[in-house]
C-alpha cells in the first residue's frame, strides 16, 4: 500500500464528484476505488492521456493578464509592469 498527497482543491473536486455519483446515479463508491479505476483507465488509454498531459497553453499574447500588463486600461500609466510601485505607493 502506498499513499500520495493531492492538492486540497483536487481533493475537494474528487469529493464533489463522489457525491455527484451518489446523487445522480445512486452509485456509492469509495475514493480508493475511483482513483484505482482512473489510474487503470489512464494506463489503458495512454495516448489520450499523454495528449491531455502535454496540452499546450494558449499563447501568452492571448492571456488576459498579459494583455492588461501590455495595455493597461484607465490606470493613467503606459506600462504597468515598470510603474506599478510608483502608481500604488506614490
What can be said about this structure in brief?
The chain has 90 residues and is mainly α. The protein contains 5 helices and no strands.
Keywords:
63% helix; mainly alpha; 90 residues
The quaternary structure here is single chain
H/E order of the elements? HHHHH
Judging from the principal axes of the Cα atoms, what is the shape? Answer: elongated
The largest sheet, given as strand count, sense and whether it forms a barrel, is:
none
Low-confidence stretches: none
How many runs of DSSP E, i.e. beta strands?
A: 0
Question: Which percent range describes the beta-strand content?
Answer: under 5%
Number of helices: 5
What's the structural blueprint in terms of helices and strands?
Blueprint (H helix, E strand, L loop, with lengths): L7 H18 L5 H14 L1 H8 L10 H7 L9 H10 L1
Amino acid at each position: 500500500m502506498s499513499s500520495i498527497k493531492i492538492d486540497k482543491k483536487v481533493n475537494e473536486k474528487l469529493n464533489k464528484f463522489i457525491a455527484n455519483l451518489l446523487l445522480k446515479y445512486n452509485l456509492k463508491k469509495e475514493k480508493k476505488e475511483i482513483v484505482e479505476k482512473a489510474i487503470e483507465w489512464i494506463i489503458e488509454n495512454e495516448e489520450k492521456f499523454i495528449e491531455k498531459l502535454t496540452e499546450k497553453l494558449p499563447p501568452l499574447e492571448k492571456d488576459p493578464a498579459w494583455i492588461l500588463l501590455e495595455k493597461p486600461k484607465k490606470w493613467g500609466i503606459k506600462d504597468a509592469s515598470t510603474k506599478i510601485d510608483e502608481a500604488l505607493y506614490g
